[in-house]
Recover the amino acids of this structure.
């Protein structure tokens, strides 16, 4: 009886099937990593947009000297300019997943302001809302 040397065709095919399943798993991990990186980027840019809105509100405080004297129409105008700035150029819009209909700047009681940015999630096709709250001081001392 002859002794067999090397691998049979069936063994090679089984090894290729195992390798194919492994490579499909690696491809799925790469897709999930890409989705997570995109969502992380969007969240980082949302923080930058919120800080931009916060700095614009601080600019309103400079003109008034007292946060309770800031007019709601001034906040509304600021909100419109802020959203326009972050959404008008769609070719370079960093917050492509933003739903600006639910986003905005609002004032609560006293000197508390809330910034809302609604982002469409890449992986789950849902909407995530990020809220940033901050307080302005009641008075600003002139230099």
């Amino acid at each position: 009886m002859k002794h067999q040397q090397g691998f049979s065709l069936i063994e090679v095919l089984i090894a290729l099937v195992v390798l194919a399943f492994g490579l499909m798993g690696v491809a799925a991990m790469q897709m999930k990593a890409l989705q997570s990186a995109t969502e992380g980027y969007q969240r980082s840019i949302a923080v930058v947009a919120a800080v931009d809105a916060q700095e614009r509100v601080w600019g309103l405080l400079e003109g008034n000297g007292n946060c309770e004297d800031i007019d709601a129409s001034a906040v509304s105008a600021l909100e419109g300019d802020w959203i326009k700035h972050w959404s008008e150029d769609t070719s370079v819009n960093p917050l492509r997943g933003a739903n600006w209909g639910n986003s905005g700047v609002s004032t609560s009681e006293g000197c508390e302001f809330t910034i809302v940015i609604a982002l469409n999630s890449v992986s789950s096709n849902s909407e995530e809302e990020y809220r940033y709250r901050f307080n302005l001081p009641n008075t600003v001392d002139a230099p």
